[in-house]
Write a sequence for this structure.
C-alpha cells in the first residue's frame, strides 16, 4: 500500500466515537473533512489514525503533508508534490502537475498544520478537489479551510473522568514502568486530568514529569503549569514540546485585535455570551462593534469553542490552559484591573436583572441563566472581596450587594452552603452599616435558618433589624422581621411566627413590596396558623398566593403553596388531590434544584404513598429524603411540627413492615440521588383497591382522616 504515514510510537487511547465520525464521513460522500480543535487536543493523532484505518479504501494511497513548518504559501504545491512522491520538475508548474497526477486516482491526502497558510491552502485544495473526483482530503487544524463542501468535525478534549485517565495512565507507564492507577492515586490522577481539561498534549507532558515528581506533586504545581509542562519528546515538532509553545503557536496566527481580545477574554470563567464579551472586552484597541468579528475569528482558530444551550443561546468557552495563556498577556499589557472591573460590573448588572426577573414568567430562564453564569458570578464576588493580588478591594459594599442580591440563587436554586460562604465573606469584609450590608445580613439569616443554624440566624437578624431601625431603612427592617418570623416557624414558636410574619406582611404592603419573598411570607404565615389548628385559614392564605403566582408566572413560591395545599388535602381525607398537589410541588422544586422544597415534598409523598397501601415504597422515599436532608442541614429543621408527617408515616410503616424491613427500605432510598429520588416519587403508579406493596400486606387504599397521631402535639 502506498503511504507515507508515520508509524505510531504510542498506543492510541480512546476517541472511538470521534474516529468513527471521521472514517464514516470519508467512506461516505464527503470529499473534504476538517478536524478542528484547540492546540494539543489531539487533531493530528486522530487524523493519522483515521487515515491509517482507511488505507484499504484508497487504492492509490494515503499521504500526509505536514504544512506546519512552511514559511510561505508559495511552497504549498511543492510540499504536496513531495508528500505524494511526485518527482515532476517540468515547466508546467507543481499545481498543474498535482492536478494531472491526481485526476484519475483514488487517494486520500492528509493536511496537517495548515493554519498559517489557510487561504493559500484553501485555494489549492479547492482546485484539486474540482479536478480530481477520486481525491479525498482530511485536514487537521485550529480553524476551517472554508472550501465549499467542507465537513467540519470539531474535536473536544478527552472526558476527564475516563478516557483522559486512561491516556495519562498509558503515557505514565511508558515513562515510569510499573505505574498504574490505583485506589490510592485515582483521586489525584482524576484531579490532574480535570485541571488539564483532558487536553492530550498537556496530559502527555505531565506524564513526562513523573520521572521526578509524584502525581500529587504534579497537582500541587499546576498553578505554574506552563513552566512545569515542558520537555516531552525532543524529536516531536517544536510546537509540541511545551504546552506554552502549543498554545503560543495559535497566538501567533491571530491578528493584533484577536490577540487583544484573547487576553481580555481570559478574565471570564467557564462559559460566556457575546453581550458579556462586548461589554467587558471593548476598549482601547478594540471597539465594541469589532468584538463580534474577533470572537468569530477566535472560534474559527479553535481558541474559543462555540456551544448552544438547551434554549438555543450561543455561548463561548476557553480551555483553562488557553485562558491562562491569555491571562499572562493581559497582565503584561497592564490592563487587568480595568478589564476585571468591567467583568465584575457586568455580572453585578446580570445579578440585579435576575433578581427582578425571578418574580416573573421568566423565572425558569433566570434559574438556568444563573446556573450557566455561576462561574463568572463567583469570579465577580471574589474580585469584589479581594481585589487584585496585593491590592485592597475597591468597594466592599459592591460585594455585599452582589452576595445579597443572589439570594434567589442560594435559596431558590439549592445552593445554601455556597450562599453561606459568600455571605460570610460579605459580612466579614466590612462592618460599616450600609444598605448593601443590611441586605446581606437578612439573606445570611435566611440561609442560616434553613440550614438549621438558629443561633447564627437569630444574632444576625436581630442586628439587621436594629441597624435598619437606626438608619430608617424600612425595607431591610421588613425583611429582618419576616425572617425572624420564619426562624420562629422552624423553631416551633407558632404564635411568635404568626405575629412576626403578619407584621412583616403589613410592612411589605406599606412600602409597596411584592415579590417572591413577600408571597413566601404569606405561605409561611399559612404554615404557622395551620400548625396551630386553623387549617381552613391556612388554605385561604395559600390559595391566594397560588393565584397571584399564576398571574405573575411565579413558580418557586407556588410550589410551597402547593405543598401546604397538598398537606391540607391529606388531612382532609383527599389522598388523590394530595398526591396531585404534592407531585406538582415536587416537580417544580426539582426543576429549580431547590433542595428544601424538594425534600419537604418527598416527605409528604411518602406519607401519601403509605396511605395508598405501599408501606415499603413509602419507606424508600423516607430514606431518600433522609439522605437529602444531609445536604440541606438540620433534618426537618429540628421541628416537631415539620416532623409530624414524617413521624406519622414512620409509625405506620414500621407497624406494617417491621423494623428490619423498614431499615432495608430506608437503606434502599438512601442510595438514590436527587434526580433518582424525584423520578421515583413522580412515577409511582397509582395504587388500586387491594393492590399489594412490594413488602406489605394487601390493604385498601382508604383515605386517612385527620387522626390525633397526625397532630404535631402528639406525634414524635
Amino acid at each position: 500500500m502506498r503511504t507515507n504515514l508515520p508509524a505510531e510510537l504510542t498506543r492510541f487511547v480512546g476517541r472511538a466515537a470521534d474516529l468513527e465520525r471521521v472514517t464514516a464521513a470519508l467512506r461516505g460522500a464527503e470529499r473534504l473533512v476538517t478536524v478542528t480543535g484547540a492546540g494539543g487536543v489531539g487533531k493530528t493523532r486522530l487524523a493519522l489514525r483515521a487515515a491509517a484505518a482507511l488505507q484499504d479504501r484508497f487504492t492509490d494511497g494515503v499521504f500526509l503533508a505536514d504544512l506546519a513548518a512552511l514559511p510561505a504559501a508559495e511552497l504549498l504545491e511543492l510540499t504536496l508534490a513531495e508528500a505524494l512522491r511526485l518527482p515532476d520538475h517540468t515547466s508546467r508548474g507543481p499545481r498543474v502537475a498535482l492536478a494531472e497526477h491526481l485526476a484519475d486516482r483514488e487517494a486520500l491526502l492528509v493536511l496537517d498544520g495548515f493554519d498559517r497558510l489557510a487561504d493559500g491552502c484553501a485555494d489549492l485544495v479547492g482546485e484539486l478537489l474540482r479536478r480530481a473526483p477520486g481525491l479525498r482530503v482530511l485536514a487537521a487544524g485550529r480553524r476551517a479551510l472554508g472550501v465549499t463542501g467542507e465537513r467540519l468535525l470539531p474535536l473536544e478534549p478527552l472526558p476527564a473522568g475516563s478516557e483522559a485517565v486512561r491516556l495519562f495512565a498509558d503515557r505514565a507507564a511508558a515513562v515510569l514502568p510499573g505505574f498504574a492507577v490505583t485506589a490510592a492515586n485515582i483521586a489525584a490522577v482524576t484531579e490532574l486530568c480535570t485541571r488539564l481539561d483532558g487536553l492530550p498534549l498537556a496530559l502527555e507532558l505531565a506524564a513526562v514529569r513523573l520521572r521526578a515528581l509524584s502525581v500529587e506533586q504534579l497537582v500541587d504545581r499546576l498553578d505554574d503549569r506552563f513552566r512545569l509542562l515542558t520537555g516531552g519528546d525532543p524529536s516531536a515538532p517544536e510546537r509540541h514540546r511545551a504546552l506554552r509553545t502549543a498554545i503560543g503557536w495559535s497566538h501567533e496566527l491571530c491578528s493584533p485585535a484577536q490577540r487583544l481580545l484573547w487576553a481580555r477574554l481570559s478574565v471570564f470563567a467557564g462559559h460566556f455570551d457575546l453581550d458579556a464579551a462586548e461589554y467587558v472586552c471593548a476598549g482601547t484597541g478594540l471597539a465594541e462593534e469589532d468584538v463580534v468579528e474577533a470572537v468569530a475569528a477566535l472560534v474559527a482558530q479553535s481558541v474559543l469553542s462555540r456551544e448552544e444551550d438547551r434554549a438555543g443561546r450561543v455561548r463561548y468557552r476557553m480551555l483553562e490552559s488557553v485562558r491562562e495563556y491569555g491571562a499572562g498577556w493581559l497582565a503584561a499589557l497592564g490592563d487587568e484591573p480595568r478589564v476585571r472591573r468591567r467583568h465584575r460590573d457586568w455580572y453585578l448588572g446580570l445579578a440585579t436583572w435576575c433578581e427582578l426577573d425571578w418574580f416573573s414568567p421568566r423565572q425558569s430562564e433566570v434559574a438556568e441563566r444563573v446556573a450557566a453564569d455561576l462561574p463568572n458570578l463567583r469570579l465577580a464576588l471574589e474580585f469584589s472581596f479581594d481585589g487584585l493580588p496585593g491590592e485592597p478591594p475597591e468597594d466592599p459594599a459592591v460585594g455585599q450587594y452582589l452576595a445579597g442580591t443572589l439570594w434567589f440563587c442560594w435559596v431558590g436554586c439549592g445552593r445554601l452552603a455556597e450562599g453561606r460562604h459568600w455571605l460570610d465573606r460579605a459580612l466579614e469584609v466590612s462592618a460599616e452599616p450600609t444598605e448593601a450590608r443590611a441586605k446581606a445580613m437578612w439573606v445570611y439569616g435566611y440561609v442560616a435558618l434553613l440550614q438549621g443554624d438558629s443561633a447564627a440566624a437569630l444574632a444576625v437578624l436581630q442586628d439587621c433589624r436594629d441597624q435598619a431601625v437606626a438608619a430608617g431603612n424600612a425595607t431591610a427592617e421588613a425583611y429582618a422581621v419576616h425572617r425572624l418570623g420564619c426562624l420562629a416557624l422552624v423553631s416551633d414558636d407558632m404564635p411568635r411566627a404568626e405575629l412576626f410574619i403578619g407584621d412583616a406582611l403589613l410592612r411589605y404592603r406599606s412600602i409597596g413590596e411584592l415579590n417572591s419573598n413577600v408571597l413566601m411570607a404569606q405561605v409561611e404565615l399559612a404554615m404557622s396558623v395551620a400548625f396551630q389548628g386553623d387549617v381552613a385559614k391556612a388554605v385561604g392564605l395559600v390559595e391566594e398566593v397560588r393565584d397571584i403566582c399564576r398571574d405573575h408566572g411565579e413558580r418557586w413560591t407556588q410550589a410551597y403553596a402547593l405543598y401546604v395545599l397538598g398537606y391540607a388535602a391529606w388531612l382532609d381525607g383527599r389522598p388523590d388531590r394530595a398526591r396531585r398537589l404534592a407531585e406538582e410541588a415536587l416537580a417544580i422544586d426539582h426543576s429549580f434544584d431547590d433542595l428544601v422544597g424538594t425534600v419537604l415534598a418527598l416527605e409528604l409523598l411518602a406519607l401519601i404513598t403509605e396511605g395508598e397501601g405501599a408501606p415499603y415504597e413509602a419507606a424508600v422515599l423516607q430514606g431518600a429524603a433522609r439522605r437529602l436532608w444531609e445536604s440541606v442541614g438540620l433534618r426537618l429543621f429540628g421541628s416537631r411540627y415539620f416532623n409530624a408527617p414524617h413521624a406519622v408515616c414512620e409509625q405506620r410503616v414500621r407497624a406494617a413492615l417491621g423494623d428490619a424491613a423498614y431499615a432495608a427500605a430506608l437503606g434502599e432510598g438512601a442510595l438514590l440521588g436527587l434526580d433518582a429520588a424525584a423520578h421515583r416519587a413522580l412515577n409511582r403508579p397509582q395504587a388500586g383497591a387491594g393492590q399489594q406493596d412490594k413488602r406489605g400486606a394487601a390493604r385498601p387504599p382508604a383515605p386517612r382522616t385527620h387522626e390525633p397521631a397526625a397532630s404535631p402535639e402528639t406525634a414524635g
User: Anything to note?
Assistant: The radius of gyration is 32 Å. The longest strand covers residues 135-141. Confidence is low (pLDDT under 50) at residues 687-692, 694-716.
